[in-house]
Amino acid sequence: MAHDDGKKRDVRRKYVVERQSLGTLALLVGVPESTLRRWKRDARDAGDDWDAARAATTLAGEGRDALIAGVIDDYVIQHQATIDDLKVKSDIAPGEKAKILASLADSFNKTISAAGRLSPQISQLGVAMKVLELLGDYIAQQHPEHVMAFVEIIEPFGETLQDTLK
Description:
By secondary structure, the protein is mostly helical. It is built from eight helices and no strands.
């Protein structure tokens, strides 16, 4: 079955710029993954290396920032899952839990610091998020009657904050 050039260009763009996998793209566009691999190979043979373009896009700016943000998102999910596990595990001694938490805190700080050096926008967002976290803690301790209002305001503000720092 022949596919139009527009579909091939769309797959290439999503692979290169959005960093989607060929497996995901096959499902999205309804084309077998083997066909996408052939398109990619044919393009390379014709001088258009999708992997090289993908790497260049990643290093060129917004792709890099998206990649770093994705790594941070993945790290934070794993970090939170570990903390959640620690909360329910009763067979870990308190001293051992403290060591694990200290190690997690250290790796979190190192991860965020490294990301900030690679992407100033992520660093700015990290500072902003820390300030909001401290404000939330302050409100919870000093003005607990206002916590729900703070949460109601802060969630949509987070989107505004991210858009501002782009």
